[in-house]
Amino acid sequence: MDTRERLVKAAADLLIEGGKEAVSTRAVAAAAGVQAPTLYRLFGDKDGLLDAVAGFGFSDYLASKHAMGVGGDPVDDLRGGWDLHIGFGLARPAFYLLMYGEPRRRAARLEADAMLREIISRIAAAGRLTVPVEQAAQFVHAAGMGVVLALLATPEEDRDLELITFSREQVIRAITTDAAPNGPTDIPSRAIALRVALEEDPPLMLSPAERVLLAEWLDRVAK
């Protein structure tokens, strides 16, 4: 490993052993066998180091998300993404809390959030989303994070893993409809689908101001 990799690995080990509080720049530099100025030169500050640690911890998770690909049913893809998210949180709690237990949105989290929105946008494009994309993404994220944190706060032998599937299906029921894939069956779902279509392929005949106005109208109809 080069110096940067040694520092990230040392910080990751400290994170796993003692949580974020254990990841001081002094402790990381000592564990990696380098001087503190080297750490600051490579990462700028502690937040820069933690960004790198989060990316290191989430690399397998993000690779698995990418490997899922695009299935024939975007709602089933959402189920798969949910299960992957919960499984990662339970398997690597220190990294999960670093990513989701604080306001700062680290680069790896932004990538994961973008993947979630992409799946939900495909549900909307199929005419099966009953709330706006952003609202649905926030709902799925909040519910998934709540399940992980609730299970992590429970002794492993007392965890009810049925909560994972139960919560997942409740969330899906709240934001989707069973409408046939050939088109939405109600006005809000049609508005949501059109909103996604306009973002992906905006009509050339509309000015930027007209597009903003149309998006506002569609958002109102979707609520």
TrEMBL record:
InterPro entries: Homeodomain-like_sf, HTH-type_TetR-like_transc_reg, HTH_TetR, Tet_transcr_reg_TetR-rel_C_sf. PROSITE patterns: HTH_TETR_2. Residues 24-43 bind DNA. Residues 1-61 form the HTH tetR-type domain. Transmembrane segments: none annotated. GO terms for molecular function: DNA-binding transcription factor activity; transcription cis-regulatory region binding. It comes from the Bacteria. Keywords: DNA-binding, Transcription, Transcription regulation. Pfam families: TetR_N (PF00440). PANTHER family: HTH-TYPE TRANSCRIPTIONAL REGULATOR BETI, HTH-TYPE TRANSCRIPTIONAL REGULATOR RUTR. This is Transcriptional regulator, TetR family.
